[in-house]
Amino acid sequence: MPSSTFDVGTAVMAKWPGSNLWFKSTILDVTEDGYSVRYEDGTEEDIPKKDVMAESYFTRSRSRSRSRSPGRRRSRSPARKSSPSRSQRKSRSPARKPAQKPAQKPAQKPAAAEKKAEEKKAVVDTPVSRAQEKRTETKLITRTVTKTEHHTYTTRAQTRSGKQILEPLVEMKSGRVPKTTHYEFGGPIGTFLMIFGLPFVVYYLYFTCLPSACQLTHKPPFSLNWKDYYDQDAYLLYLGWFLFQAILALIPIGKVVQGQPLRSGRRLSYRTNGLFALVVTFASFGAMVYYKCGVEFIVDKFLPLMTAAVLFSFLFSLVLYIKARRAPNTALAPGGNSGNVIYDFFIGHELNPRVGSLDLKYFCELRPGLFLWALINFACLAKVWTDFPDNAPWNLILICIFQFVYVFDALLYESAILTTMDIIQDGFGFMLVFGDLAWVPFTYSLQARYLVDHAPGFDQRCLIPVAMLFSLGYCIFRMANSQKNSFRENPHGKTVSHLVTIPTDTGRRLLISGWWGFVRKPNYLGDLLMALSWSLCTGFGSVVPYFYPIYFFILLVHRERRDDAACRQKYGGAWDKYCSTVKYRIIPYIY
What we know:
Blueprint: E1 11-15, E2 22-30, E3 34-39, E4 44-48, E5 52-54, H1 70-75, H2 86-91, H3 111-121, E6 141-145, E7 148-152, E8 154-158, E9 164-166, E10 170-173, H4 187-208, H5 232-250, E11 255-258, E12 269-272, H6 274-290, H7 297-300, H8 302-326, H9 341-347, E13 354-355, E14 358-359, H10 360-366, H11 368-387, H12 394-412, H13 421-424, H14 430-443, H15 446-453, H16 463-489, E15 501-503, E16 509-511, H17 522-536, H18 547-571, H19 573-581
Antiparallel strand pairs: 1-2, 1-5, 2-3, 3-4, 6-7, 7-10, 8-9, 11-12, 13-14, 15-16
Helix pairs in contact: 4-9, 4-14, 5-8, 8-14, 10-11, 10-14, 11-12, 11-14, 11-15, 12-15, 12-16, 16-17, 17-18, 18-19
């Protein structure tokens, strides 16, 4: 029986994640959900308690053991370079044999007990015959097609019915990360222009929407006084904000989940304590409002705060690129390995840069920028309500509620981001760094900042249909994403087992019913409806607050096109059949 506790440094037997194989390992740390162990080959994993046993449980005969280390088993393809001879194949039994047998069989042991003991001690690591290459819920199956490996894993989580969740087939390529040959965003020239063009847009939106006027113009009143962009308190505040969120992310609260398999088959661990960080952040903000600590500072120092975020994004991206140059080839991003400094700096040279247990890309995607966006909104609300305490700004209140719900939803389903293109495919470079830390908080808060100084100019009863539009968009967005995630976790679950699908050569199945039979990207449709509702709260006095839904539509169309090209290459004819069945991409009967 497995022991309930093991001390750090104890030698144990640990099951390899997603398989039925046990290997010698050492306890590195005792976690809330189990143990952090190091296998003999140096691989470190977080293992549930039920998958760790004492060495005495396995009475092995070393002289007859043929087990390999997990690293060796992972690194070698099942299609061996040198095939065994015919005589060797004949002598090999078609059925799997236990790799280990007990050294002695006591004569007095009953046959039934002896059989049961043998089943417990079995450790399967012998070569697999073709007849045995079937996918089961407890075995790791690997089949090789030229240079591509297809791995099927079972998750460590359990369904409510008590059965394991079987994940869809995941395609990974073995070997070195190849050079990037396909450029996006206009290649090196296009990305060079975007490195300076994106900050220009952020400043353009700020100077076109001032208290005096908020209209599009080809000559916005840019300030030429450097003191307007620099404020020591604002810079220190932004740096402290980033460090504060990093500390919250490292606090051992919340579940530890596994990301998607990397090229090597290994999975990275992520701590999902975003809701905890959100509660602590806004509880602190509420206390500051209650004790009148002057949260309006965020609005009054908006320009230097924005400048601090822009400068920090450049410096942070530079550090990430230098770090990536020292990283092994296997850690690089397939899309940011072109060899061109400008292009790789923008796209991101390393896929998953980490500092200790803190995954920098995962952290920045959901924490500092997203939280700051909501805080800027509430700071705007606090400023307006302080200046006009007898006149409740319902338009601004509604925007704050809408966008806080959006942020809260992202943290409520925090682990879902691990299956997105940003995490799986894109490297962590200037594109994501600037987008997460500067673009999101200082452009997405444009509607709230507009309402601080400009009246919406329409009857507040018009907010009722606006609220209904947001509710419709959120329902489509949430139900579509929940349906997709439920199908990925367990395609035989009660809520998705009735859905119609199309099989593909990779083992995955494409949904052609439910929300995903309505349009190809129903979650994008819901996103756009919510974005439109935010801008409608500002009225029709200026087109500038409508920048977000316009920009967001262009962004989502571009992302859908990228995803369509990748899926067409991956699924081939099955994707063509899917597109002929689900004809519209985002907006039904229009696009």
